[in-house]
Design brief:
Blueprint (H helix, E strand, L loop, with lengths): L1 H28 L5 E7 L1 H9 L2 H6 L2 E7 L5 H7 L5 E6 H11 L3 E9 L3 E4 L13 E5 L2 H13 L4 E2 L12 E3 L5 E5 L13 E4 L1 H6 L4 H4 L2 E2 L5 H5 L2 E6 L6 H10 L2 H11 L4 E2 L2
Parallel strand pairs: 1-2, 1-3, 6-9, 6-10
Antiparallel strand pairs: 3-12, 4-12, 4-13, 5-10, 5-11, 7-8
């Protein structure tokens, strides 16, 4: 009788142990489903930076899906339509202008980095001895064209009408001693005419995309301590009303981490500068 009781006890203990073990294995093997965050971004450097945060976001319970766009229009439209959660490609003056023109309701949620605008060589590479009639290609959207013209003015190439500021166009040039030809193009197209124009003025991401290095190739650029560095910082944006989304907050946290700041410094060598 005692032997039978011992045998039953052993069977019961074994059964309980197997049940507990099975429960542990089931718990370990069942993957936690990640919540998805979708972001529209320019390929360089924005999508590259986002690629670096995927692992850290996964640890916070989120899967990051990045859709690349080569223009400055669609990333805002898809966010405003609710098709994508956020975008990462623009600065606030451009966003403000876009919202006003298109009637979109997109808001910034974090300042991430700054990309100095630069003057790069095309057919010519000597700004100090620029030829009369030389052609300079610039972005044609309102804020970036003004920024390009202000950079040309800062380097003594033209003078702009007082007060034109961030809305300046080539029609606001009041002094052009070298009779420079200002060629206005969509921002993504500017680098493509480097072999046809004497100089090109490029946003940092398009300069990188074209193979330029700001430290060695830029003939002139906006400086880190300039007003432009504060005004034209690149921002993470969402549709109005989604500012408190937990996934977006997690994305901001990893984008502002020391790890990403170091990645930016090591990878872009001054063409992209992280902002605290």
């Amino acid at each position: 009788m005692k032997n039978i009781k011992k045998l039953l006890l052993l069977v019961l203990v074994s059964a309980l142990s197997l049940t507990a073990l099975a429960g542990c294995q089931s718990k370990e093997e069942t993957p936690t489903e990640l919540k998805k965050i979708t972001v529209a971004a320019s390929p360089v450097p924005h999508a590259e930076i986002l690629e670096q945060v995927k692992g850290d976001l996964a640890e916070k319970g989120y899967e990051l899906e990045v859709t690349e766009f080569s223009d400055y229009v669609q990333p805002n439209l898809v966010v405003d339509a609710g098709d994508i959660d956020a975008n990462f490609f623009q600065h606030k003056p451009y966003l403000d202008d876009f919202n006003a023109e298109k009637g979109t309701k997109i808001v910034p949620v974090a300042v991430i980095h700054y990309e100095p605008l630069g003057i790069y060589p095309g057919k010519s590479n000597d700004l100090a001895n620029i030829a009369d009639g030389a052609s300079i290609a610039v972005p044609n959207d309102t804020t970036n064209e003004a920024r390009a013209l202000l950079l040309l003015e800062a380097n003594g190439l033209i003078k702009i009408k007082k007060g034109a500021g961030l809305s300046a166009t080539k029609n606001d040039i009041v002094e052009n001693l070298h009779n420079l030809e200002i060629v206005e193009l969509e921002a993504a197209q500017v680098s493509r005419v480097a072999k046809e124009t004497d100089f090109v003025v490029l946003n940092g991401n398009y300069a990188l995309d074209a193979g330029f290095k700001v430290g060695t190739d830029a003939l002139a650029k906006e400086e880190k301590d300039s007003e432009a560095a504060q005004t034209y910082a690149n921002i993470l944006c969402v549709k109005e009303g989604n500012e408190e989304n937990e996934g977006i907050k997690a994305l901001i946290e990893v984008l502002k981490s020391d790890k990403i700041k170091q990645f930016i410094a090591d990878t872009y060598e001054g063409a992209v500068i992280a902002i605290d």
